Amino acid sequence: ECIPDIVINGRHFERDEWSNVTPKVLSHIGRKLHSQQGHPLFLIKQRIIEFFYKRFAGSRGNPIFSVHENLDPVVTIKQNFDSLLIPKDHVSRNKSDCYYVNSNYLLRAHTTAHQAELIGMGLNNFLIAGDVYRRDEIDANHYPIFHQLDAVRLLGKHDVFKSLDDGAKMEVFDKMGARTAEKQERHTLEACKVMEDELKSTLVALARHLFGQDTRYRWVDAYFPFTHPSWELEVFHRDNWLELLGCGVMEQKILDDAGAHDRIGWAFGLGLERLAMCLYDIPDIRLFWSQDSGFLSQFADKTPHDAIKYMPVSVYPQCINDISFWLPEDGSFTSNDFFDLVREVGGDIVEQITLVDNFTHPKTQRTSHCYRIVYRHMEKTLTQQEVNTVHKQIEKEAAHKLNISIR
Ligand code: PHE
Fold it and tell me: Which EC class, in a word (predicted)?
């Protein structure tokens, strides 16, 4: 039997029991939305880059941050997880959450995957932008591919305390320290507080650069395996607290492993779609992938400084169909498998899927799920007949591939 390799950007990967990337997801690799002039994701990314260029300028006004936005989205398990100290049994490694190419490679689940190698190359100040891949639910705010931007800043002993009068006497590292809620064992409290201060003031300034000078914000304690302490920054936008980014002081072991044992660092990561949806009034995440001029032309001639309000071209009606089935008795069913199958068959006309009924038969102990699938085309009206054809196909393939039985 001959199973074809998975081919991504001309590289061949042998399939194995971990492979779960779908043809639909693979077909999106290489679109580089964040690098397309005049795309909303490009505009937001550019606005953030400009902020960093201005805030951290060298002695001749030159930017000190370098930008990396063409890194291959196929990464190793080591890059995505191990190099970031993500435990072997951490849920984020699950097959039901990631797109694995095979047991050695996956489509990166965050741009943080490139941190360690860039530090290893000797970089101290850099931004990473790119497409990231996660298996998730289906609605107006989730798509299996989205875009992130990460930043890393490393400082040596002399830079950390540069602005303090008695800075020359202060230490960054502590051989016998303890890990507390406020700091890592290897860091002095003073060094950690200076890093926290620079990180937080930079990110508040970034949030105000994006959302306006009067924007309200709050810090929420967070946990990431690769930073400690860690926080999330939330901004108040249109009556809601919006989670803008995750950040923290980088785990010293990551720097040690990458050969930067004499430096201390901070890092953050944010999602570009959510930002663009808020700032430009984009109502549905599928629109970023639209090739329709009704969408693209509203951004095409804009600059990162323009205020933009997206006007929906027109909203086409929804068609709603339910699907009910008995789950296989061997427990092999996961809803993310079903979501991927629906994407595969239905493509972008699937707007949302919700589990509307979950029922276990008292006698047979068999479980049945009913999902409501909302269909809507972004650029035209769908007929009920068109939708029925797709819906039937979904039933057929789900029965065949997921071993369910339609009720
Ligand atoms: N990688 C994290 C995420 O995807 C964000 C993050 C990056 C947090 C860097 C802290 C430091 O949610």
Answer: ligase
154/119 Cα distance (integer angstroms): 9
pTM: 0.88
In whole angstroms, give the CA distance from residue 334 to residue 331: 8
pLDDT digits (tens, 9 = 90+) for 356-374: 999 999 999 999 999 999 9
39 Rama sector, left if φ>0, alpha if ψ -120 to 50, beta otherwise: beta
- Single-letter residue type at 81: F
Burial of 190 per CB tally in 10 Å (0-12, 13-18, 19+): middle
- List beta partners, residue 369: 325, 358
Distances (CA, A) of 183 to 223, 227, 249, 327: 13, 10, 8, 48
Residue nearest to atom 4 of ligand 1 (CA): 110
CB burial string 367-402: b at 16+ within 10 A, e below: bbbebebbbbbbeeebeeeebeebbeebbeebeeeb
- Beta strands 66-68 and 125-133 are parallel
Instruction: Phi first, then psi: give them for residue 338, nearest 5 degrees.
Output: -65, -45
SS3 267: strand
> 268 CB under 6 A from ligand 1?
yes
For residue 380, the SS3 value is: coil
Residue 150, ligand 1, Cβ within 6 A: yes
In this structure, the residue with its CA closest to atom 6 of ligand 1 is 269
Q: Which atom of ligand 1 is nearest to the CA of 247?
A: 10
- Chain position carrying tokens 């990473």: 128
Q: Between β-strands 367-375 and 263-271, what pairing exists: parallel, antiparallel or unpaired? A: unpaired
Tell me the CA–centroid distance for residue 53 and ligand 1, in Å. Answer: 21
With beta carbons less than 8 A apart as the criterion, state whether 370 and 356 touch. yes
Q: What is the pLDDT of residues 319-359, one digit of tens each?
A: 999 999 999 999 999 999 999 999 999 999 999 999 999 99
Cis before 144? omega within 30: no
What residue's CA is closest to ligand 1, atom 10? 247
How remote is the CA of residue 148 from the centroid of ligand 1, in Å? 9
Give ipTM to 2 decimals: 0.98
- The angle that helices 272-280 and 40-55 make with each other, rounded to 10 degrees, is 100
Distance CA 15, CA 102 (A): 6
The atom number, within ligand 1, closest to the CA of 151 reads: 9
- Please report the atom of ligand 1 found closest to the CA of residue 152: 9
